[in-house]
Design brief:
It is built from 14 helices and 22 strands. The chain is an alpha/beta fold. Helix 4 packs antiparallel against helix 8 and helix 6 crosses helix 7. The chain is globular, with a radius of gyration of 22 Å. The protein binds zinc ion (ZN). The site of zinc ion (ZN) has 5 residues, from loops.
Length: 457
């Protein structure tokens, strides 16, 4: 049988990354993500795997976002027995995200049972999440590791979140396959930039921002302005934020503003147990830090602890700010406002004119974040209709994903074109536009797989 690469997720959409590599008698799965967003997408999580988990030889993980690892507990529950490879920092974050994802699944099943769906079962339990975590084996960047039948692979830095990596796989016939995972931005704070790669035979690359360039906005200026307005009007700034990456970058920028004397002493609440734990991981992972961060930490600065920050771990602490008045920043998950504690804060404060909602990343179709960003005057939150009177703001430059120009810059490092470049992890408009651009500017062969499409290598 010919070597092949099949796409069972993040195909013409941004979640559920799951790509199956087959060569000789071996099968390697790259990422095993949860489908998120619309109901149709989420329903895919309940479908049986489109391959037999028992027949997989290895799973290689690019990073610990749930849309890349969130189906691992189900994979292990359904019979996968082999190793799950990741970088050490990815394992650290997976220890936070997988049990959390399981708790959400269990909560969801309880809700469904209450609503009369008597047989509703969680997709997986916390126990399943811990069983999956036991299968992790870690590998640092640049360390080559064997796969069956003489194949091998190595991790390259992806610069997306702590621990994020591209997997560069050398097949037994010598062909090299590069799976980008999610590609980060150049010059983002704290962690190192995406590594330059100049050759592979087959490239699979994400395309989240394939049709857009992040505004060339100055993050510090914009944050300063919003915080200044909040100070003047006594506003609560609600920041739906991804717990991993985005929250730490915000803390880093608040600290920068404070050190430059550009920020009033506004209380900052990190209302997310996961973000708090992730912040500790970010502060400790020296091997991931970029030069600025290394130097600053060496000088004794706690870059991720601006003055006035409070970390709210338990629910009671979270509730204690419900009726708080005056200027403040509340950073809380989830980043697309489709779950988590931020939803409670939005429900309470969206109808107040002085509230400022600050989005800090991509808002997928079907999420509350997307509806707010598109300016809907009224939204439904936990069964209640809420008038949106708050001011909606967006900080595009904080995205953890490379934009179109950055992707083209990164692709520009290649000395010879890959035989085929597969675009994954993007909505159709973004993918079509990026494909067009790559064909026109680089003259490369580009394919955009649909769910279930398989390509001979
Ligand atoms: Zn990601």
């Amino acid at each position: 049988m010919k070597d092949s690469l099949s796409f069972f997720g993040a195909a013409r959409t941004v979640t559920g990354s799951r790509h199956l590599l087959q060569y000789g008698k071996s099968k390697v799965l790259i990422d095993c993500g949860l489908f998120q967003g619309s109901k149709a997408a989420r329903d895919r999580n309940d479908d049986p795997f489109p391959f037999d988990p028992k027949e997989l030889d290895a799973v290689v993980i690019t990073h610990a976002h749930v849309d890349h690892i969130g189906l691992l507990p189900k994979l292990v529950k359904d019979g996968y027995r082999g190793p799950i490879y990741s970088t050490p920092a990815t394992l650290g974050i997976a220890r936070l995200t997988l049990p959390d994802s399981a708790r959400l699944q269990e909560e969801d099943a309880r809700h469904r049972r209450k609503r009369g769906e008597l047989n509703a079962q969680p997709l997986y339990t916390e126990e399943d999440a811990y069983a999956a975590l036991k299968k992790f084996k870690t590998l640092t960047y640049g360390e080559r590791h064997d796969l069956p039948e003489g194949a091998s692979w190595v991790y390259r830095r992806a610069g997306h979140i702590l621990g994020s990596a591209m997997a560069e796989i050398a097949l037994p016939d010598g062909d090299i396959l590069l799976m980008s995972g999610d590609l980060g931005r150049y010059n983002a704070p704290i962690i190192q930039d995406p590594e330059e790669v100049d050759f592979c035979d087959y490239l699979t690359i994400e395309s989240t921002y394939g049709n857009r360039d992040h505004e060339d906005e100055n993050i510090l200026d914009k944050l300063e302005r919003i915080l200044h307005d909040a100070w003047q009007t006594g506003s609560a700034v609600l920041v739906p934020s991804f717990a991993i990456g985005r929250t730490q970058e915000l803390l880093y920028y608040f600290k920068k503003l404070q050190m430059a004397g550009r920020m009033n002493r506004i209380p900052i609440f990190i209302d997310s147990p996961m973000a708090i734990s992730a912040t500790q991981l970010y502060a400790q992972a020296k091997e991931e830090h970029d030069q600025d961060m290394l130097v600053s930490v060496e000088e004794g600065n706690s870059e991720l602890e601006p003055e006035g920050v409070s970390f709210l771990r338990d629910r009671e602490q979270s509730k204690s700010i419900n009726f708080r008045q005056g200027p403040m920043v509340i950073i809380s998950g989830s980043g697309m406002a489709n779950g988590g504690r931020i939803v409670h804060h939005l429900l309470r404060r969206l109808s107040q004119e002085e509230t400022i909602v600050l989005f800090t990343g991509y808002q997928a179709e079907g999420t509350l974040g997307r509806r707010l960003l598109e300016g809907e005057p009224e939204v439904s939150i936990m069964g209640q209709e809420v008038q949106v009177r708050a001011r909606i703001e967006k900080l595009n430059a904080l995205s953890a994903h490379a934009d179109r120009n950055e992707m083209l810059k990164w692709l520009g490092n290649f000395k010879t074109p890959p035989r085929t470049t597969f675009l994954v992890h993007g909505e159709p408009d973004a993918q079509d536009a990026l494909a067009e651009k790559i064909r026109a500017e680089l003259g490369w062969q580009v394919a955009i797989p649909e769910f279930g499409d398989s390509y001979d290598l």
